[in-house]
Predict the structure of Legume lectin domain-containing protein.
Amino acid sequence: MKKIVFGFLIVTALFISAPKVSFANEANNPPTGIKTEGIFQVPAGANSSVISGDDLDIVEVTNDTKRQAGAIWNTDNNMMDLTKDFSSSMYMYFGDKESKAADGMAFVLQADPNKNNAFRTGEGERLGVWDSTKRGEFGLAIMNSVAIEFDTHYNDDFDMDISKKKNHIAWNFPGKESSYYDHSSLIGSSYRKLIHNDLQYPENQYLSDDKWHHFQMNWNASASTLTYQFDSLAPITIPINVADVFGTTSVYWGFTGSTDDSYAQNRIVFENVPGLVDGTVHEEAFTKADHQNVTGKKVYAGDTLTHEITTSYKDGKVNWTHPVLTKNLDANLSYVPGTLKLITPDGKEKALPDDSWNDNSLQIMLDDLGTDNNFEKIVFDVQAKQVKEDYEVTHTDVVTGSNFIAHSDEMKYTISSNSPPNLTLKDANNQVSLKDDDELILSGSWLDRDSDSVSLYYQVDNAPAVKFAENLANVPVGSKHDFSTKLKLDTGTHAVKVYAVDSDHATSNVEELTVAVDGTLTFLDIPNFSFGDLTVPTSNTTLFPVSSGSLKFSDTRIAGSGWKLSAKLKKEMTTVDGKHTIPNGLVYIGSDGSRQTLSENESVLIDSGTSGDTNEHVVDWNTNQGLALNLNPGLYKGNYAGEVEWTLEDTPNS
């Protein structure tokens, strides 16, 4: 019986004293962060510190102890210049005390007379930055400042306009009396409350939930506004009259915080600090076939896409050191081996090893970035997989350096569940040779498994695509359909692509062939030569035609093709009755005065050259040059005529 009673009592005792389940403490496990060496200093008396780690530093505003007062500011070398835009991104940790936490911390921009030695103690609800909690008392705030508070504890008077016991985020100007409301009453209490501008509440009710919360802000110098966002809450924009609030454009920035009888840890890790380094990472995706941007558009199973991730250095006091790009590829995309490369600012490309990928995760160490090396681009191809229903792919990237971390904006496109057409082209991947008066015949077939119709396109070189067949009925669906079309091409070598697009806008594979179109070499005009009425000479005489005209020919061949014009005697100069001739009568006089007799056995070279931009060539002869008649004494009188055979040859280009 004693054993039974004892056992019962133990069970009861355990039940009564069972502790509340506590959070696993994440204070030392921030999601990311940078080193902040030389960025901050702590005023004398403040309970703040920088906890240095191997890869990142943690700024601790207050530790997990009662009655702490914290402040930490930038050093003089890291002032914030309000004439320039800046941004900052960080993670904030408020402990794990939930409703028992106090009091929180505040981000502060200030031009207090005490500069980066500014430090305030007092009631916990002041968070080390706000003015007195007593009605009518002023002068205890950090002056010439703006503060964004992250309040983990509700205070009856100071937080009177807040839903009771709610953690909250708000802003105001600590040194301005207008930031407070003093209430006095002859009957009842007198109190001071802080005016909470743009009041927000954390999504999880408590800031002190053992989680790191993302906080980012951006200063727009031209608009004179500070915009901040906590986690996924709506962004808040603070209009700031710089001259009125600070009296200067060079201000200090940092954090203050406090605990009271209730307490919690307050910590920060930075992804980037204002003014030190400014950089971006940006991703785009393009179709492999024609480099069309697919952001916000549909792609299809089997499509090959080229992704470009550009990491850029914009400005800063120092270089962006040891940047590492991390990219996680969606499971519905597969990397195309052998396509990973780096492109530098001078346009040089460097192939990168495929083992930079671990499954669908890419990690690449970039070179340090600065004014001399201000960007590096990573390029690779992926292929879209088949999906059962339309699937939106969201791409984000992060580049983590030792002193700056940048995230890309989301880049999205949708993989369509529609199957694209499949197209085959006769002579694909081969070369077809044509003459310039021939037509190219494009023929093949297409097949689409699920669309109502298909349109067909061809593209010649880099010219716009031409739709040569529109809305061809896909009946019966999934069967093979033949096609054929003709087109004329200019002389030269051309890349001709053919593809199909279905009625759901899915694009087929692209088939390509090479077409070499050669031109022709053709006489256009061969003149008749007349030597007029002549008198038999008393000595050997050479006469040129009194009328000749020009010899013209057309050359539509590929530029650089060789040609040669020659002539030979087909019929000696002979009288009409055929009884008399002028032996060796026709000669060709060159531009250099050289003399060649035309004969029936051997051709005389007249001219040569290569084809160029002009298709029509004209052969003219100057005075005392060209075809001539050689006369000698003793010739018989009569009407003489002869024939010359002109030859135009296609010759190799020497």
About this structure: Residues 40-272 form a domain with the Jelly Rolls fold (CATH 2.60.120.200).
